[in-house]
Amino acid sequence: MVAEEKGTISIHTENIFPIIKKFLYSDHDIFLRELVSNAVDASQKLKRLAAIGEFTGEMGELLVKVSFDKEQKTITISDNGIGMTADEIKKYINQIAFSGASEFLEKYKDKASDGQQQIIGHFGLGFYSAFMVASTVEIITKSYREGSQAARWTCDGSTQYEITEAERQERGTDIILHIAEDSEEFLDKWRLSGILTKYCKFLPVQVELEGEKINNTQPLWTKSPSELKDEDYIAFYKELYPTAADPLFWIHLNVDYPFNLTGVLYFPKVDNNFEVNRDKIQLYSRQVFITDEVKDVVPEFLMLLHGVIDSPDIPLNVSRSFLQADSNVKKINAHITKKVADKLAEIFNNDRKGFEEKWDSINVFVKYGIISDDKFFERAKPFALLKNTESKLFTLDEYKEHTKANQTDKTEQLVWLYSNDAQKQSSYIQAATKRSFDVLLFDHIIDSHYIAFLERHLEKTAFKRVDADLADKLIDKDVSIASVLSDTEKETVKEIFNKNIGGEGVALSVESLSPDDLPVTITLPEFMRRMKEMYATNSMGNMFGAMPDSKNVTVNANHPLIGKILAESNEATKTKLIRHAYDLALLSQNELKGQALAEFIERSVSLLN
Hints:
Elements: H1 13-23, H2 30-51, E1 63-69, E2 74-79, H3 86-92, H4 100-107, H5 114-117, E3 134-142, E4 151-155, E5 161-165, E6 172-179, H6 189-200, E7 206-209, E8 212-213, H7 230-240, E9 249-255, E10 261-267, E11 281-285, E12 288-291, E13 306-310, H8 327-350, H9 352-372, H10 374-380, E14 385-387, E15 393-395, H11 396-403, E16 414-419, H12 426-434, E17 439-441, H13 447-457, E18 461-465, H14 471-474, H15 487-501, E19 506-511, E20 520-523, H16 526-534, H17 541-545, E21 551-556, H18 560-567, H19 571-588, H20 594-608
Parallel strand pairs: 1-7, 11-13, 16-17, 16-18, 19-21
Antiparallel strand pairs: 1-2, 2-6, 3-4, 3-6, 4-5, 7-8, 9-10, 10-13, 11-12, 14-15, 20-21
Helix pairs in contact: 2-6, 8-9, 9-10, 9-13, 15-19, 18-19, 19-20
Keywords: ATP-binding, Chaperone, Cytoplasm, Nucleotide-binding, Stress response
Family: Belongs to the heat shock protein 90 family.
InterPro entries: HATPase_C_sf (IPR036890), Heat_shock_protein_90_CS (IPR019805), HSP90_C (IPR037196), Hsp90_fam (IPR001404), Hsp90_N (IPR020575), Ribosomal_Su5_D2-typ_SF (IPR020568)
């Protein structure tokens, strides 16, 4: 029998301290981010107190200084902010996970101001990151309160500490790190500069390293869009990405309800390779760099964008290095999607010509968004453009009107033809345009998926690649062409062609086509071709790529050459003509290469003699 008992779980500081020191942060260089952020908080708290009248002294220029001494093996982070008394050191430093920032915000929550929003700290653990690189840490500090005595706190990384009186004339705090032997790499100006540039480049209080200014305290996203010009946005883009080409346009985010979100997202010029660089959007929290892995905050299809997002409402783990799942993340994600759609619609409505000029660069965003987000598709319908082989652009509704008269089949289904390689499929495009069919251009790696999406979502609309069938069969209007050959002659033609070019993967037929069409036409079955295209971009591509191509070979019974072949009595000449007609079909598909192409050229010369 177990007696019922209630109690309090015991946490031993000596056990948790090594975990905080060694395992809380994934990268040791984060110690500098945390200590500089604390110094900025100390400065921001002083601003806050001055704003509400609780500090009436001379504030002066608030500044965070980072310095190092290679001989003494020390790194010092100094500020002239709020400072601490000895009692506050005991309260904020000696109590692990007690956040002075959180207590400050709670104390002054009824006197909210912009300054309050700039307090960075939250967990009360950042200070202890110092012990990842330091064998001993000193704090020399003096409170802003009149008559305060300066105090010194020292700790060697154990649970033992010492507090004594110190000499310091001005308010503020010095954190002195006595660098451990295994961390002496940080006693280097370029190393420290790199860390500060990465994490502290846009902190709201000036930061200096050895007297050199590190940060821009008022980055563009903290300003109102009304006070900014195009050149300001471009200059900031160059500050973020010095070697990049100018962006196409940008979206300034500025939301304060139901969450706080600021930032600027840029649309860069994207090439046709669709190489998604997923480290181009930087996430900040109150101007402190957190991460460039933003896949949960930014929709997948917008990972090609560049820029900055800053939100104190994005939940971070205790080390402030990674995002955590939260309803706010989903809301922010949805808001960014809507803002992007609104911006694209605005440009399209106000400057369609300019929008069309940008289409080649932005269509991948729009198509990817449409495929991955049904809500974005609904918003994008008015500005999702289709481009034909003559480089004319249409909205979905405009193209429906453009093609319905001539490209509606016998079942009242609209058939949209397309090419994924206008040069390779030139002869098929010409055959289609001779029949007054329009041909779209879909030559991006994403387009096979985009076409499949549109077929599922557009009513009574089908897509066919222009070389997927004979021109007269691409859009079945139930119209037949009379044959100049009898049924017996057709069978004879089929036999002699099968004898010369038939084999595995070749499905041969003899059809009555226009005399203007090629004597022999090769098409790839639509289903197999689509499967090969759809899976070319994922792991199943090899499965379909290993399957032999199945070709539909159609002999044009009404072409004069076929009649000539049928009448030819010399078997060698007949074989040569059949092979030549078939090679012409291969050539039109850009599939005649190597030895076969050399033989075709040699045969062409002999036929001309």
